[in-house]
Amino acid sequence: MYELAVLAVVVVVLMTATTFLAGVIGPALRGVEYVLVALSAAVVLFVMFFVGAEVVMRYAFDAPIQGHLELSELMAPIIMFLAVSYTQATHGHVGMDLLLDSLSPGARRRAEMATLLISIFICSVLAFFSFKNAYQLWLFDDVTMSPPYFKTWPSAAAIPLGYALISLRMYLQVLHVYDPGRFPANEPDAGGFHAVE
């Protein structure tokens, strides 16, 4: 319980600092999101070719690639969590807005801000505890159970990174909903990897 109280204080302090630095943090986060979503797409392509090569090696040459299953599993969190903040920025996550659509514009704004703030604290808790897990895996030099013994901490480290960035993105969205004139959206442009709406 002590850790959660400290985390809540840290999150509030970071939110306050972000409010004052939103003009700098927003564009920087947008750039980071572009880089990470491109890396996520590159990892997807790598896994696709890697799994394809493993199938060819297994069935055509009777020489399966060692550790193919473990490596593919380790890539899944990297694919997902590197792109999660970008997906939030482009409003690509699935949402249930039937109730929101029936509210007045003012009530909709308040409901959206409240939902984002609750989500920020939940993602912050998940970022903190997943960071502790990734750090522990790094300290113990944890590896997969079969050869060639891939290290597990890089995959685990993608999780707190994703949760931290989506928390930051959601707070910038709270600021934008609160005062769009003072806090621009700083969301990715419609070109490139934009989500289908």
By DSSP (H or I, 4+ residues per run), the number of helices equals 6
Main sheet attributes: strand count, strand direction, barrel closure = none
Number of domains: 1
- Described by the principal axes of the CA atoms, the overall outline is elongated
Q: List unreliable stretches of 5+ residues.
A: 190-197
* Helix and strand element order: HHHHHH
What structural category arises from helix and sheet content? mainly alpha
Strand content: under 5%
Mean pLDDT, to the nearest integer, reads 89
Could you give the count of β-strands?
A: 0
| Percent range of helical residues | over 70%
The Rg value, from CA coordinates, equals: 20 Å
Instruction: Report how far apart the termini are.
Output: 40 Å
Write structural notes for this entry:
By secondary structure, the protein is mainly alpha-helical. The chain has one domain (2-90, 104-178). Helices cover 74% and strands 0% of the residues. The protein is built from six helices and no strands. α3 (68-89) packs parallel to α6 and α5 (105-139) runs antiparallel to α6. The radius of gyration is 20 Å and the shape is elongated.
In short:
The protein is mainly α and 197 residues long.
